[in-house]
Specification:
Elements (H helix, E strand, L loop, with lengths): L2 H6 L9 E2 L14 E2 L2 E8 L11 E5 L1 E2 L10 E3 L18 E9 L8 E10 L1 E6 L2 E7 L5 E4 L9 E9 L12 E3 L2 E11 L6 E6 L4 E7 L9 E6 L2 E2 L1 E2 L1 H9 L1 H4 L4 E7 L14 E8 L5 E9 L4 E4 L2 E4 L2 E2 L2 E5 L13 H13 L4 E3 L7 H10 L2 E5 L8 H4 L6 H15 L5 E5 L8 H13 L5 E2 L1 H4 L20 H9 L7 E6 L10 H10 L3 E6 L7 E4 L14 E2 L2 E2 L3 E4 L28 H8 L3 E5 L5 E5 L9 E9 L4 E6 L9 E4 L12 E9 L11 E3 L2 E5 L27 E8 L6 H5 L2 H8 L5 E10 L2 E10 L2 E12 L2 E10 L8 E8 L5 E7 L14 E7 L15 E11 L5 E15 L3 H6 L13 E8 L20 E11 L1
Helix pairs in contact: 4-5, 7-8
The structure holds beta-D-galactopyranose and magnesium ion (MG).
The site of magnesium ion has 5 residues, from loops.
Catalytic activity: Hydrolysis of terminal non-reducing beta-D-galactose residues in beta-D-galactosides
Keywords: Glycosidase, Hydrolase
Family: Belongs to the glycosyl hydrolase 2 family.
Length: about 950
């Protein structure tokens, strides 16, 4: 450690936000820089006060050392800090990484201004060059730049040392719900500019084509120097009025160094998330002889953001915000994410109907905003401030005032030119205090073109005009509360939830109900699902270490390769930790979509269908800005008898919000039972985020309701049951018994249901046979399932019918068991069946309160693909509204089941108890046969791990449940 730093102890000095750091700006130097990424000499010290030794290893930059085979491993905590010290203090044991390398400073940079940029370092960065202290920076998710002109000699190598102290006063305001890491997590760059250079460029581009570009040179602009700009080759005029005023005012003209360019673009193509039209802006600083001293490139989107009344308008339109919260995350590299990975995240979000991102909870990698501009997303850009554990103490602590204003202002200075950024967020979960108001004040003055939001302020009153939030942006507010606010007559601000529908494990029940309310209620405009990623880190089981970059390719379709698993809190032996709460995204750690994404895609469908009885169907354009010409369609008619008819669909020419009636594409065939018409909507041509032919939505209407009633004649056989009254059947290794329980989902666990179920004894009721009655071809079996909280009488009547066995069941749920997981039958087949084919909702997983996106049709999937490998094993793989199914082996043997009514079923390789007993997938041993559940009722999933439980309509009622099915051998 270098003396000046250890004397200052900047890691326990919140007032010190930086030293020697250049101001943030929106001029991007990535293109002209020398990239210093790669292996650096590295040593990890136990504290910043320990002397650097000769024991160097190496570490890859950018990357967290916590993922690179050091003894300092990742730790996950949600609210609580990982150490007990009160802000601004930190523990004495404070891992400190020292990175060092020789950097060749090009000889041709002589006479130029040389700048070092460190993309991101957490949480304190100390910079030395050739032993001389150069700078300090905090703010772990924004770049820090230091001028090295006077420290290095072009043509000679310089020794750059970057010391990164893990714990600091700043950790207390970086207490986001995520893994704790240490390291340099974004690229390190070195670049040179002319001593006189473009210090900043501020672009304002409005939807009427008005363009203003303010260029700061910062420093006296010597005589004859000038700035020009062009927009896609069109020259931009100087602001003559400004120039004149400048010239008249001697105090200003000499040192202001500003140039203002103005233009009005006729017939401008406006930017929206649906139509991300960008123009290329180039700004040049010229020497008196016309040569170019500096250039800055920008992409400009012409658009307006405004709040009118209680509506947030984009280009005058009240748009729905179909958002997600996204962390910078990768299962191998933590917070270091490549351009390709970010692009893949955003492409996937586009394909699943999202149009907005909240950069929870810090400014993301700069490339993310470029991609959001280009692919079309509305971004809520959030400052790196979360003091969750000490929220109350810090929000008004003047020692942290600098840090708040610094972090918010630096984010705004960096990202102000992105059309995608429509709202600034002051941070997350940091209570509300004067430090927030100070930051908000800075933003409102500096950038009056965008609203400011902050959940902690909005919480003081959704309509309160005096708090630092222009948006009512609650988290996890129940639907009814949002609707009530919108109907109260008191709403003054747009209501857009900053977090809702918590995606932990098998979750997101009632998402469609949220959206039904949002679309039907003026004043409600959407929200951001919590969250995009399951932050599982790929871990070697053998030594418990993160796989790191060597883990590339060691996972597929959400499943870690043998010998590996997805680690969550506690898996690195860390104390304290908050377990699987880190796995709460709509994608698995390798970006495999969870089934909720299909639900979301349909909820966000740009094309909607309505049934006009026999006359036809109504097609609606549900977008805000686009016609339907980018889409194409195909009709599918699914009949219960197994037929699927298809026909090309002609999408009408509809403007946003318009509808048109079209005749039925098919004559409804006689017979065939219930009939479902689906419009398979795909991209007509390549979109930047989807090749032509990508499914966009699958809206569906039911054309005929009558299910096929098959009454099978009773056969002249008997059905065999054993001494316990259990069905004996050659295809079953476990006879159908009553099931009231499921392997608790994360919602069930954290919402308290699972504990109640265990107290009630639902997981292992004692079955007591009461009576067996035989009558002709039928056997009736009455049993009691004795739980700690009550007795459930269960009756099964097995009747031999032509080709199979009819099973009629009933269960009487006492009042004491008023919220069970399910009521239904479970059985287990012999080994052999590998394919499930069904008529019902699908093909992806669906549950009673998450089934809007699963159209009814004929579906088939291998048994092993039915199951979703949620990080912590839990109830998974359900299919809703199933009418009949077959379960077959490759040689076509197997069984078929016809259900008396559409039911929830599941088929997988695990008993509920197998899943409930495992903490990770590598502990599970699949059974040879299939475990089949047929449910008369199945509890909704809700989102109770954080937020509302499911609605009462999706609970399993007490009283008598009846269900029936026919089992046949194929
Ligand atoms: C919110 C918080 C998020 C995350 C989420 C639960 O309260 O803002 O960071 O913790 O809850 O997963
Ligand atoms: Mg938090």
């Amino acid at each position: 450690m270098t003396a000046p730093f250890s004397w200052l102890r900047p890691w326990e000095a919140p007032e010190v936000t930086s030293w020697g750091r250049l101001p943030m700006c929106a001029v991007d130097r990535r293109r002209q820089a020398v990239v210093l990424d790669g292996e650096w000499r590295f040593q990890l010290l136990p504290s910043p006060e320990t002397a650097v030794s000769d024991a160097w290893g190496s570490s890859y930059v950018p990357g967290a050392w916590t993922l690179q085979d050091t003894d300092d491993l990742p730790q996950y905590t949600n609210v609580r800090m990982p150490f007990p010290e009160f802000p601004p203090h930190v523990p004495a044991a404070n891992p400190t990484g020292v990175y060092e390398r020789a950097v060749d400073v090009p000889g041709e940079w002589a006479g130029r201004r040389i700048v070092l940029q460190v993309g991101a370092a957490e949480s304190v960065l100390l910079v030395e060059v050739d032993g001389r202290p150069v700078g300090i920076s905090k703010d772990s998710h924004l770049a820090a730049e230091f001028e090295l002109t006077d420290v290095v000699r072009p043509g000679s190598p310089a020794r750059v040392r970057l010391t990164v102290v893990k714990w600091s006063d700043a950790s207390h305001i970086e207490d986001q719900d995520q893994w704790w890491h240490g390291g340099i997590t974004r690229s390190v760059l070195l670049y040179a500019t002319d001593p006189l250079h473009l210090a900043d460029v501020t672009v304002r581009a409005r939807r009427d084509g008005d363009l203003r570009v303010d260029c700061a040179v910062r420093g006296p602009l010597p005589d004859g120097w000038y700035v020009t700009g062009d927009l896609d080759g069109q020259f931009l005029a100087q602001d003559a009025e400004f120039d004149r005023a400048n010239a008249e005012d001697e105090r200003v003209s000499g040192f202001l160094g500003e140039a203002r360019l103005r233009a009005t673009v006729p017939g401008v193509r406006t930017w929206t998330a649906e139509t991300p039209e960008l123009y290329g802006l180039t700004v040049r600083l010229h020497r008196p002889d016309g040569t170019v001293a500096d250039t800055s490139h920008h992409r400009v989107g012409f658009r307006d953001v405004e709040i009118v009344g209680r509506d947030l308008l984009i280009n005058g339109e009240r748009v729905f915000i179909r958002g997600v919260n996204r962390h910078d995350f990768h299962p191998l590299t933590g917070r270091t994410v490549s351009y390709d990975d970010m692009r893949a995240d955003l492409v996937l979000l586009k394909r699943f109907g999202f149009n907005a991102i909240r950069t929870a909870h810090y400014p993301n990698d700069p490339a993310l905003y470029d991609l959001a501009d280009e692919l079309g997303f509305y971004v809520v850009d959030e400052a790196d401030i979360e003091s969750h554990d000490h929220a109350h103490e810090i929000a008004d602590d003047p020692r942290y005032l600098n840090a708040f204003v610094d972090r918010v202002s630096r984010m705004v200075l960096r990202d102000k030119n992105h059309p995608s950024v429509i709202i600034w967020s002051l941070g997350n979960e940091s209570d509300y205090g004067a430090n927030h108001d100070a930051a908000a004040g800075w933003v409102r003055r500096h950038d009056p073109t965008r609203p400011v939001q902050y959940e902690g302020a909005a919480k003081r009153g959704w309509a309160d005009p005096d708090v630092a939030s222009d948006i009512a942006c609650p988290m996890y507010a129940p639907i009814e509360e949002c609707v009530a606010h919108a109907l109260s007559g008191k709403q003054t601000k747009p209501l857009i939830q900053c977090e809702y529908s918590h995606a932990m494990g098998n979750s997101n029940g009632t998402l469609a109900d949220h959206w039904a309310a949002i679309e039907a209620t003026p004043g409600l405009q959407g929200g951001f699902i919590w969250e995009f990623w399951d932050h599982g880190i790929l871990q070697r089981v053998s030594d418990g270490r993160p796989a790191g970059r060597a883990g590339a390719g060691l996972y597929e379709r959400g499943v870690a390769a043998p010998g590996h698993r997805w680690a969550y809190g506690g898996d690195f032996g860390e104390v304290p930790h908050d377990g699987a709460f880190i796995a709460d995204g709509v994608v698995l750690p390798d970006r495999t979509p969870k089934p909720v994404l299909y639900e979301h895609r349909e909820i966000a469908a740009p094309v909607r269908l309505q049934c006009l009885r026999h006359e036809g169907v109504v097609i609606g354009n549900h977008q805000h800005f686009r016609g339907l010409d980018w889409l194409t369609g195909e009709w599918r008619l699914s009949l219960a008898d197994g037929r699927t008819l298809t026909a090309p669909a002609e999408l009408p020419d509809l403007r946003p919000g318009e509808t048109a009636a079209v005749p039925l594409p098919f004559e409804l065939p006689e017979g065939g039972g219930e009939a479902w018409l689906t419009l398979r909507v795909t991209t007509a041509r390549d979109e930047p985020w989807a090749p032509a032919g990508t499914v966009v939505c699958l809206p569906q209407v039911r054309l005929r309701a009558t299910p096929v009633q098959r009454t099978l004649p009773v056969a002249d056989r008997t059905v065999e049951v054993d001494a316990d009254g259990l069905l004996v059947h050659p295809l079953l290794v476990a006879a159908p018994t009553l099931s009231l329980w499921r392997a608790p989902t994360d919602n069930d666990e954290l919402g308290g249901m699972a504990g109640r179920w265990r107290d009630w004894g639902l997981d292992a009721p004692v079955r007591e046979l009461v009576a067996v009655r035989r009558a002709g071809s039928s056997v009736g079996v009455l049993a009691e399932y004795v739980c700690a909280a009550g007795v459930v009488r269960h009756e099964q009547v097995f009747t031999a019918v032509e080709g199979g066995i009819r099973v009629e069941e009933s269960a009487e749920l006492p009042e004491t068991l008023n919220d069970v997981a399910r009521v239904g039958s479970v059985f287990e087949t012999v080994a052999g069946p590998t394919l499930l084919e069904w008529f019902g909702q699908g093909p992806w997983e669906s549950y009673p309160d998450r089934s809007t996106g699963a159209p009814v049709g004929h579906h088939s999937l291998p048994v092993d693909e039915l199951f979703t490998p949620y990080l912590r094993p839990q109830e998974s793989g359900g299919r809703h509204g199933v009418r009949h199914f077959t379960l077959s082996a490759p040689d076509a043997t197997g069984l078929a089941v016809e259900l008396a009514r559409p039911s929830q079923i599941s088929v997988n390789r695990y008993r509920a108890a197998d899943l409930a007993a495992a903490a990770h997938h590598d502990e599970l041993r699949p059974r040879a046969g299939c475990v089949v559940h047929i449910d008369a009722a199945h509890r909704g999933l809700g989102t109770a791990s954080c937020g509302p439980d499911t609605s009462p309509a999706y609970l399993v009622p007490t009283g008598t449940h009846r269900w029936g099915w026919v089992l046949r051998v194929l």
